[in-house]
Write a structure and sequence with these properties.
By secondary structure, the chain is mostly helical. About 85% of the residues lie in helices and about 0% in strands. It has 17 helices and no strands. Helix 1 runs antiparallel to helix 8, helix 2 runs parallel beside helix 5 and helix 7 runs antiparallel to helix 8. The chain is globular and about 60 Å long.
């Protein structure tokens, strides 16, 4: 099921390849939303606030591993486009060992530092018990997040975006079914919602690994005649580490900034926390296709950059920008018009204050999705052309601006300044990324 992205109509190739990735992330958002819906409707605003804060924490922690896998995927797709299967196999073994060790260390560290983490997040006392119960369970899924994402990015690097979708679909449906059973029927509370997610993560991680081992022998990280010495050579390992760490830093800095924003939001009380927990799920769902399209664009760019086809890379840039901006414009209109009905999916009509805050968030931030859409493409472009460090720079600009403005202005002018700080950060990073591209003529 491998696909060479160095031939064929540029826009059609990217869209066809991106399709399963977009659908897969939609499914992933669906089972995230299932947690939020079940908790919000059956356990109340306090539990919803706790799960929402835990979701932000887990997004930060897993972004470290997802970024590492994403960066390694750029190396894999580069060598695949170049036609160097041997180097690709060496990179696969090196990256599996490198990221696998980090995932184990991270998993141990979060259990050891659980109380400190919750304290730093400024969790209100009325939801602290909910939060601790939820994260104690959800942390067990971290290693399996690594497994799924490593194999998913490996398969996508060689043009197979369908198989990761199938395993994600199975996990998504299982998570929704388990949510209903564990929380609604068996009354296991927030712990039940967490176990539903962890079980789904185990199935997807182990399942996709087994598939790759049986069906894609040339992509195995052992058994292809590649020695540990070759994988850890000065030519292979440093390149894997460079791309992996750059993408991981970019992803983790981005989500660390989001985590800091969550801490500020927590200081405004349970109503704001609950509104943000629901609204951010809608927000993530809305711009997710643009994010996944940019991941497709990154792999397209990396394969063609490896094949030294600069003309095709430039055609890809034009097609990607056009596609992303059109999509983001349409979604912005829809979110602005239907903000309240969307909030009512997660929040009861009687929660008037929560609804009001959530609608405000969606109508401010949702009007400017073109900013985040372009920023995703810039991240993808710099990863695909061998300059992953520039993605880190843009992330620091975006998140640094967001955090600085939010912490400075929100205590004085209210929570809405947090929403405006996010938008300003997007556009400053966009301007920087475009100007750098024109200056360096890349």
């Amino acid at each position: 099921m491998q696909k060479d992205l160095t031939h064929g109509n540029v826009q059609r190739t990217m869209l066809v390849f991106a399709g399963p990735m977009i659908v897969g992330n939609l499914l992933q958002q669906c089972y995230n939303i299932a947690d939020t819906w079940v908790v919000g409707q059956f356990l109340g605003a306090g539990a919803l606030a706790a799960v929402g804060a835990a979701y932000t924490l887990m997004t930060f922690l897993t972004s470290v591993l997802i970024g590492l896998c994403m960066g390694s995927g750029s190396v894999f797709s580069f060598y695949y486009g170049k036609g160097d299967k041997r180097k690709m196999q060496e990179s696969i073994l090196a990256s599996f060992l490198f990221i696998g060790i980090i995932s184990v260390i991270l998993n141990i560290a979060v259990f050891a530092g659980m109380d400190l983490i919750l304290k730093l997040m400024r969790i209100p006392e009325d939801i602290y018990t909910y939060m601790k119960k939820y994260v104690w369970v959800i942390f067990w899924g971290i290693f399996f997040v690594f497994l799924y994402n490593f194999f998913a990015y490996l398969l996508r690097a060689v043009g197979n975006s369908v198989t990761p979708l199938l395993f994600l679909a199975i996990a998504s449906m299982l998570n929704i079914i388990l949510d209903l059973l564990l929380v609604v029927k068996w009354k296991m509370g927030v712990g039940g919602a967490a176990w539903a997610t962890v079980i789904a993560q185990i199935i997807s991680g182990v399942g996709i690994g087994y598939y790759l081992w049986k069906k894609e022998p040339e992509l195995r990280f052992i058994g292809n005649g590649i020695s540990l010495k070759e994988a850890c050579s000065k030519e292979v390992l440093p390149e894997v580490v460079r791309f992996s760490l750059a993408a991981s830093v970019q992803q983790s800095v981005m989500n660390f900034g989001i985590l800091m924003i969550q801490g500020l939001i927590n200081s405004f009380g349970t109503a704001v926390m609950a509104a943000y927990a629901a609204a951010v799920k809608i927000d993530s769902f809305a711009y997710m296709p643009a994010q996944e399209f940019s991941n497709s664009f990154s792999i397209f760019t990396s394969q063609n950059y490896g094949a030294k086809d600069e003309k095709r890379v430039k055609e890809g840039v034009r097609a990607a920008v056009k596609t992303s901006l059109i999509f983001c414009g349409i979604v912005s209109v829809l979110i602005f018009l239907f903000a309240r009905p969307l909030m009512l999916i997660f929040v009861k009509a009687t929660e008037v204050k929560v609804l009001q805050i959530g609608v405000q968030y969606l109508r401010i931030e949702g009007a400017f999705y073109c900013g985040i859409g372009l920023l995703f493409l810039l991240y993808a472009y710099y990863r695909g052309t061998g300059k992953p460090e520039m993605s880190v720079v843009l992330t620091v600009i975006s998140l640094g601006t967001r955090v600085l403005l939010a912490y400075t202005l929100a205590p004085l002018l209210g929570v809405r300044m947090i929403w405006w700080a996010i938008i300003i950060g997007w556009f400053l990073a966009d301007i920087t990324g475009v100007l750098y591209m024109k200056k360096k003529k890349i």
